[in-house]
Amino acid sequence: MTDLKEENPVENNETQPADEQAEAPKKSIDPSLQGFQLIYEKNKNVINYVGGGLAILIVAIVYFKLFYLPEQEKEAANEIYMAETLFERDSFNLALKGGIMVMTPDGQKQMMGFEQVAENYNLTKTGNLANYYAGICYLRTGKFEQAIESLKKYEGSDEIISSIAIGAIGDANMELNKADEAVKYYLKAAENSNNTFTTPHYLKKAGFAYETAENFQKAVDVYERLRKEFSSSELAREIPLDIARVKALGNL
Hints:
Blueprint: H1 35-88, H2 92-97, E1 98-104, E2 107-112, H3 114-120, H4 125-140, H5 144-153, H6 159-175, H7 179-192, H8 198-212, H9 216-229, H10 234-250
Antiparallel strand pairs: 1-2
């Protein structure tokens, strides 16, 4: 019989599992590093990621403040001009809604009203001012709820205009037969800027609102304050008659 040949052992050429392979050596941190250098080496991926994000944020803020916002302010000032002109002519609906064709340096175009300026340029000072104008237009055209909504959006630093805006909210509430709410805004308007123009004016309105609510003692108190603190004003010269009338009404 023919001798059987011994089989040669098959060599195992399969790749060893990954966990059995030698791991690549990690880069060690230089033990001589100290302070910020050591912190950076330990956390450089996170630091680089955060630093890159901050750089992008800073660039975005600079662009917004130095380029985008000034351009928006310029556009808003051009757009509101015709609405302001119509407002001064008491054309409140047109000033509010716009829509008519007007001639501009760039040619004929459809003008924006205060509503659209306030909406389209809400990040600008002009857009903020458009909220005030829109509120007064609503008030003059009998839309008192809308007037309150727009006037509350106005956030101005001008003492006179901001006082008038607050007082106009009081006027809208009076038209809505909310005398108590009106008093609150009239007194706020009076305190907003202590001057001889708006303060006595809104103290007088607050007194009248108290009368309407039949709170005659409060009305007298406000009128007396007007008479004492603003004695040189025209309203102070007339107020003694109001004081006498209210005292008679309230049996005071």
